[in-house]
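Q: I'm writing a short explainer about Glycoside hydrolase family 88 protein for a general audience and would like to include a description of its predicted shape. Could you first generate the structure from this sequence?
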Amino acid sequence: MMKKILLTVLLIGAMKSVNAQSPQKDEVLDAMKRVADWQILHFRDDYTGRGAHHPLHWVNGAFYVGLAKYAEIAGTDDYYNWLKNIGTEHEWMLHKRKYHADDHAVGRMYFALYEKYGDKSMIEPTIEQFKYMTYHPATTSLDWPSPYHHDRWSWCDALFMSPPVWVKVYNETGDQRYLDFLMKEFKATTDFLFDEDESLYYRDQSYMDKEDNGTKIFWGRGNGWVFAGLAQILSDLDPKSEEYAYFLAIYKKMAARLLELQTEKGHWAMSLLGAEFYPTPETSGSSFFTYGLAWGVNNGILKGKKYEKAVIKAWNAMASYITEEGMLGYVQPIGAAPGQAFPDKTQLYGAGAFLSAGYEVYKLVGDK
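A: Of course. Here's the predicted structure. Afterward I'll give you a sentence or two in plain language.
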């Protein structure tokens, strides 16, 4: 108990001292290595009380996304080899549910390894599964209570899990059907869940008519999933295409709104419009926002010092929540709405989000 109290005091002190001083490249890389190494060491830990997740589960898949980015700049193939062992052990298959977006997330890692090694067997099962889906698309409603609603992207998290993989498949095959599927489904979800007044996504239909302390409920990590997914989609589309313009418009709206909602401490609240009611930092959603904003700065999309300052402030905040052992603290547990986060609690997707953010921040400070 005393150790937890001391840890809390130390982290709260770190929260107060966060500033916009730009870190050095080696500091960013060191923070990434500490988080990556700790998370790999604790990869099979039970974070929920229900046992460790299957290696192809979305919780792990989100970690792989960030770890694959870190592997690019780590200066060793050890992290690539660790990821490759996951793919080889599971014969490069996606997880068990054919249509469920969460079970597509691991496909991002497969494509990252394919781009590194050029072995098409790493992505063939994913392409084959997506091919089936284009010929047999789900036609269920996006309404949350409807049967089989998870067969389509009826919740905002799905926009991180599956769409970036569809872009990868489209680029690899050149088959327009994959891009058409992506656009049809993404537009349907956005038309349904995106609030034009707030430039944010509802988590799903069930939150549209609810309020939390008098504010609309826009879940921090839920919008983090979307924003990070948009950055990845834009990274892989032709900047001159109509599809790129569509995603870019949403991305810019969200970026401008996120700049307004960043807290003085550098993070974003678990309920984006209710920071006063959720003062505790939350590092998974905030790291995804940091990644997405840094990507925009690095690619010349988000112009002006205000965005760069927001990125540096956010990164410094996230890095301050790493424990001495290398665990990223204040990661909200699995959920679908604002809740609680603790300095001594983590999850793999938090580490994945942090590593994605670090990848872009590393590039940002390296250009100075």
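A: For your explainer, you could say: The chain has one domain: 23-366.
Q: Perfect, that's easy to follow.
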